[in-house]
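sry for the spam today, last one i promise. struct tokens for design, 198 residues
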């Protein structure tokens, strides 16, 4: 996996680099706006480390899945956390913890052999508390629908359902922006009509 990442332009950070980058991901416990949308090289520069200018993403291998780990948070930048798992169930458990900490209801993504391991797809779908569960699809682009799949409506506004404090659990589209009126006239429901005893 590491070799594949490196071939694609990712930089696997060493311990010192990971600490430096982790130190700029958050500011006072919240996302650091200075890194949002920046390139991997710019974020590295902000953190005081050097990576090649053409680096695509900075990856920190971490183990904690709670709020104390900066890499465990949503970062809106080309920075990723990498976790080791002893087996598939352990990997899904870690993913569940990450979702519960900061992404409940939003989107989760699994890369697997969907044809030869359908049980993994089913298990992942059952366990994740997300409205969008993507299989072999880039999470950021796949979640907005239409580009990589046709099950999700194309939208940049993604509902997270009651899990995430939203009223809908699907991609927001035109149907959600139309106000509908319903005029309801009184009509007795005869199933519940009671007659006096004679």
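last one done:
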């Amino acid at each position: 996996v590491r070799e594949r990442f490196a071939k694609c332009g990712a930089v696997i950070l060493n311990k010192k680099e990971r600490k430096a980058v982790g130190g700029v991901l958050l500011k006072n416990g919240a996302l650091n706006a200075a890194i949002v949308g920046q390139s991997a090289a710019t974020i590295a520069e902000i953190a005081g480390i050097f990576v090649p200018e053409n680096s695509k993403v900075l990856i920190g291998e971490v183990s904690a899945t709670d709020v104390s780990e900066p890499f465990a948070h949503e970062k809106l930048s080309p920075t990723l956390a990498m976790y080791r798992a002893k087996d598939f169930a352990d990997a899904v458990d870690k993913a569940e913890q990450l979702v519960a900490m900061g992404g409940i209801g939003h989107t989760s993504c699994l890369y697997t052999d969907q044809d030869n391991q359908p049980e993994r797809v089913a298990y992942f779908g059952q366990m994740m508390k997300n409205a969008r569960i993507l299989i072999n699809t880039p999470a950021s682009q796949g979640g907005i629908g239409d580009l990589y799949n046709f099950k999700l409506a194309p939208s940049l506004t993604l509902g997270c359902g009651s899990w995430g404090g939203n009223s809908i659990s699907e991609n927001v589209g035109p149907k959600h922006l139309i106000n509908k009126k319903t005029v309801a006239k009184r009509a007795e429901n005869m199933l519940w009509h009671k007659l006096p005893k004679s």
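The mean pLDDT is 94. ok im logging off now
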